[in-house]
Design goal:
This protein is 44% helix and 17% strand. The protein is globular and about 65 Å long.
Amino acid sequence: MSLGKLVKFIRGHIGLLNRIRAASQGTDNFIWVHSASYGEFEEVRPIIRIIRNTHPEVRILATFFSPSGYEFFKDSGIADRVFYLPLATRRNARRFLDYVQPSKVIISISDYWPAYLRELRRRRIDTYLTSARFEPSMFYFKPLGFAYRNLFRTCFRTIFVRDAVSMDLIRTIVSEDKLVLAGDPRMDNVLNLAETVWSDDFIDKWTSGKKVFVAGSVLSGDDYRVIADLVNSHPEDKFLLVPHEVDDGSIKSLCNMIRCRVALYSRSAEVDTGNIPVMIVDTVGLLSRLYRYGFAAYIGGGFEKSGPHSVVEPAVYGIPVSFGPNTGSYYHCRFLMDCGAGTMIKDCDSLCRWYGRVMSDDGYRTESGTAARNYCLQGRGVAEFIAGRIMS
C-alpha cells in the first residue's frame, strides 16, 4: 500500500464504527457486501444491481479493505451505504454486526476475515462467497491451514465458484451441497458496459476517430519495460496507456521511459494533444470503458505473481488481447488463448512481434477479436443466476 493510500486508510478508520452506527440507525433489511478493493467489487457489482432492481426494499451496505475501492465507490450510488471495513477484531465484528444487523452477507472473491466469519456463524446469518477461486499454493490447502478449512466448511451457506480448477480444489474440504460452479459474474458487468453508449471528449479529440493500441493496468517493472520498448519502437503510432498506480512517482517513472511526446489525461484541456502519440491516463475508474478505443490491448500484471488484471474487460469489445506469462489459474487467459483471442507475452520482442501481426494482418485481427467477443457472450447470465440463488 502506497503512502498516500495508507494515509487515506488511517483517516478513514478514525471514528469509523460510530459513523456506521449513525448511518444504520432507523434502517433495516441491509445486505452487507464486502470486497477487498476496486477489482473485487467490480465482480460483485452486477449481482448487486440485479438485487436492487428486483428487491427494491433491500438496502445495500458495502465495505472495502482498500482505499482504491472505498474512494472510488463511496459517492457512486451503487450502494446505499459505503464504508471501510472496521479492523477485524472480535469486538469490532460484534459492534459492526450489532449496528448493521444484516439479513444476508455477500463476500466477493477472497477477503474473508475469521473474526467476522465466526461472528456471522454464531448469529446464523446467511453468508455467501461469490467469484471464489482457489490455487493449490494457497494457505488453506496446507497442513497449517486447518482453521481456515473449518471456516469454509461451517461459515458459508453457499460458495459460488468461478472455474473448474477452483471447484476441484475446494470440494476436497467443503461438502458438495454448499458448492456451485457458477462462472464469472463480471461477464455481465463488462457486457453491460460495452453495450452502453459512452465516449470521452479528450480521448475523442486525441484519437481523431481512429482506433489506438491500449495498455491497461500496467505495473511498474516489467510491464513498464515492455510497453515502453513497444512505444519507442513505433513512434508513428498512437498508444493509450493506463497505469495501475496513478501516483506522481509512478506516472513520472513511466514518462521517463518513453522517448516520444506524452500527454497526461489530467492535463488534456491545457494542450493540443492531436499530434502527441502517447496518452497516459493518470486517473482511476475509466479503464473498462477506454478499451473501446482500441484495436488491440495489452493487460498488465502478467509478469507478477498475482497474474494479469481483467482480460475480459478489453475482450468484450471484440479486440485481440495479450498479457504476461504468469497467468496462474486465471482461466480466462487460458480459454482466450485456446480460442485464438489471447496471446501470452514473454518479453519485449514477443510483444513487438504480436503487435506487428495485429497491425499488418487484418484477417488475424478480425478473427481474434470476434473470438474474444464470442467468449464473453457465452458468460452472460451468471450474475442473474447468483442473485436469484442468494435471494431465494
